[in-house]
Design goal:
heterodimer, A: 109 residues, mainly beta, six-stranded mixed β-sheet, three-stranded antiparallel β-sheet, 11 strands, globular, B: 112 residues, 46% strand
């Protein structure tokens, strides 16, 4: 079955602390994974995709096929990172995205 | 991404009524999508369209219908056959099936 699991509904950290938002997937094909973010009162937007291997706003994510994971990491959290984060898996030839339930990141001063 | 406009932001429906949610994009994207989001769940795909005059069912198409008469428009109709229509609906578009999706602000539909 194709599935994306984000085990934490809420992750609460203090400013300057490291952050790791967990994402695990289940897919028999070659996975393509994304992280989307939704800041308060803003629309859902793409944060990064694994094939780009880039760092956006200090966030990175590495695809680990052995552990079927795509965890999102940032070494030093900022208050402006507080948002809802969704991990998504692209499957099929028509750009279908399967989303996890999301993790709310709260960064406290 | 101001290129995708969904309207209205809030919509109320009486039992037995059909309602249509609007989605317009000026990004010149070929592909468009409709998702539904329920509390505590991820987005689920309702319908998608690769090009004008073509659309396909997603995972939860029952009780919904769409049209794609123009490239920039992909309206979603929630019919009376949809048993549990109360949800948040998101429209997205992408340049093609290989490019990331861009999302609108969403429409929240409630049943009176």
């Amino acid at each position: 079955a194709q599935r994306v699991t984000q085990p934490e509904k809420l992750l609460s950290v203090f400013k300057g602390a490291p952050v790791e938002l967990k994402c695990n997937y289940s897919y028999s094909g070659s996975p393509e994974l994304f992280w989307y973010v939704q800041y308060s009162r803003q629309r859902l937007q793409l944060l990064l995709r694994h094939i780009s291997r880039e760092s956006i706003k200090g966030f990175t994510a590495d695809l680990n096929k052995g552990e079927t994971s795509f965890h999102l990491k940032k070494p030093f959290a900022q208050e402006e990172d507080s948002a809802m984060y969704y991990c998504a898996l692209r499957v099929g030839g028509y750009n279908k995205l399967i989303f996890g339930a999301g993790t709310r990141l709260a960064v406290h001063p | 991404d101001g290129g995708i406009t969904q309207s209205p932001k809030y919509l109320f429906r009486k039992e037995g009524q059909n309602v249509t949610l609007s989605c317009e994009q000026n990004l010149n994207h070929d592909a468009m999508y409709w998702y539904r989001q329920d509390p505590g769940q991820g987005l689920r795909l309702i319908y998608y369209s690769q090009i004008v005059n073509d659309f396909q069912k997603g995972d939860i198409a029952e009780g919904y219908s769409v049209s794609r008469e123009k490239k920039e428009s992909f309206p979603l109709t929630v019919t009376s056959a949809q048993k549990n229509p109360t949800a948040f609906y998101l429209c997205a578009s992408s340049q093609d099936f290989n490019q990331p999706q861009h999302f609108g602000d969403g429409t929240r539909l409630s049943i009176l």
